Amino acid sequence: MPDYPSMPDERLMARFASRLDQAAFDEIVARFMRPALAVAVRILPDAALAEDAVQEALLRVIRHRSAYDPCRPFAPWFYAIVRHAAVDLARRRWRQREAVADLAARTPRHAGAEPAVPPAGAGDLLRRLPAAERDVLVLRIVEGMRFGEVAAALEISEEAAKKRAQRGLARLRERVLAPAKAS
Description:
Blueprint: H1 9-19, H2 22-43, H3 47-63, H4 74-105, H5 122-127, H6 131-142, H7 147-154, H8 158-182
Helix pairs in contact: 1-2, 2-3, 2-4, 3-4, 4-6, 6-7, 6-8, 7-8
């Protein structure tokens, strides 16, 4: 039985790549998860997005395991993958925000649909929401899009769009009702 904790990173990756050894991959994850998150957090402003980037990097390691050269150090190869995954995710988020801003600036394409006019101060409340929830609510409520269209625009599932809208609306209710309760 191999002693995974004492095995060098390069041998672990070679073992995983050649045999799909789950224990070797688990050891790689145990060693590199925390430092990989630290790398991703420097690129992405949100800890949840950084976790997503690390998960994507691990998937890329699995998919491209045959590209790894065991004669070269593992850590630089892996951290390059983490950096690329984080940058790709940051670009995707930027493109999504740009698309949402563009859609919010235009009149809805639905026949006869008029954009909802948010009440005074609603923009400030929306800006305080997490970007994922805000983007869904702008498309759904302001632009009048159906959840299927929102999901397609943001490249998420329809269920995810509904959940984000639900969480966003709950946060808005808390913020609107909180001052009333204090009086």
